[in-house]
Amino acid sequence: MLPTGVGSISELADDLSALKAGTPGSVALWASRPAVLRRVALMTSSRIPAEATRVIATGEGGMVLATAVALTAGLSFAVWNDERFEFGEAHAGEDVMLVAVNHSDLPGLITWCQQRGIAVTAALSVFGQTGQGSLFLNGDYGRVEEGVAP
Q1: In the list 42, 55, 69, 134, which could disulfide-bond 77, CB 3.0-4.6 Å?
Q2: pTM for the full model?
Q3: Interior CA angle at 64 toward 7 and 76, to 5°?
């Protein structure tokens, strides 16, 4: 869990707002900054269910997000793109945590995993809309706000 004060969720939201995170093409702006990416990875990995044995990421910035979260959590990872694994692997019967920068990238991966007998223990996005299980929401005037993640 992240501390309050310096390094807090609200401070990370401020940093992401300053980098215009959550807008199309903005992943390279914030994910290339170790201090920001590390905090996103810590927040994401703290929500990985105990039974998960692998992290699978998808979408823009998927490789960077998967690597950071997997290193933080100490789990294997894979990156899925366009109906196949771009990097890594996962197998039927395995319990996985799905992650994405944008929530809209998750539904296709969830269906793909279910069709192959890969158990999705949880799915989390960095950015999404209210009620989608996202760490952050894009608020008014380009402001990034804390979301409601599972």
Answers
A1: 55
A2: 0.88
A3: 100
The tens digit of pLDDT for each residue in 43-100 reads 899 999 999 999 999 999 999 999 999 999 999 999 999 889 999 999 999 999 999 9
Query: Is residue 2 in a domain?
Result: no
- Per the structure, the count of domains in the chain is 1
Cα–Cα distances in angstroms (integers) from residue 86 to residues 70, 83, 106, in the given order: 16, 9, 15
Please report whether residue 64 resides in a domain: yes
Residues whose CB falls within 8 Å of the CB of residue 122, separated by 6 or more in sequence, listed in order: 47, 48, 49, 52, 97, 98, 150
Q: Determine the 3-state secondary structure of 20 from DSSP.
A: coil
In a domain, 4, yes or no: no
